[in-house]
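Lab notebook, design round three. We kept the backbone fixed and only want residue identities now. Task for the bench partner: fill in a sequence for the structure below.
Input structure tokens:
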């Protein structure tokens, strides 16, 4: 279960808007998080609370394949991105980093709504009354997300086999 406040964006949010090029000079994930969504909202990282979610339209994460975009979002405190669709490389990077990419019709969700995402039953409840169906990654993708990323998943799997 993920519960948090919505930060809503539109269609075609690209990785340059998520983390602009000039801020890619560090590998510190918390420094990257300071500039999360800086290409759209310079105050975004100051507004986010741990557990919040990003909601967007079509083609979220398009543009370059930079995984720093996913890292900036995750280390900002965001637990999931709910969008109508994702750029394929962003979707895969999100799973690898441990950020839930969730597909749903986001038309009825608004900025500052409080959402609760039931990952197991694939339902989103907004403001305790609106219920939406969603698609959550399954199979090994879900196992990677539950392990909070590919590296953790790899370590968990290797420790179980010994």
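Proposed sequence:
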């Amino acid at each position: 279960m993920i519960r948090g406040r919505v930060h809503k964006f539109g269609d075609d949010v690209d990785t340059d808007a998520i983390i602009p090029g000039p801020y890619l000079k560090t590998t510190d994930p918390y420094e990257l998080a300071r500039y999360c969504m800086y290409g759209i909202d310079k105050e975004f990282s100051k507004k986010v609370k741990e557990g919040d979610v990003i909601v967007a339209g079509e083609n979220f994460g398009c543009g370059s394949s930079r995984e720093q975009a996913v890292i900036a979002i995750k280390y900002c405190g965001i637990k999931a991105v709910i969008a109508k669709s994702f750029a394929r490389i962003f979707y895969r990077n999100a799973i690898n980093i441990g950020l839930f990419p969730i597909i749903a019709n986001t038309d009825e969700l608004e900025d500052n709504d409080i959402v609760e995402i039931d990952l197991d039953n694939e339902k989103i409840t907004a403001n305790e009354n609106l219920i939406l169906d969603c698609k959550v990654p399954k199979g090994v993708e879900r196992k990677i997300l539950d392990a909070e990323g590919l590296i953790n998943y790899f370590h968990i799997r290797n420790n179980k086999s010994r």
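Keep this in mind before ordering anything: Residues 84 and 106 are 6 Å apart (CA to CA).
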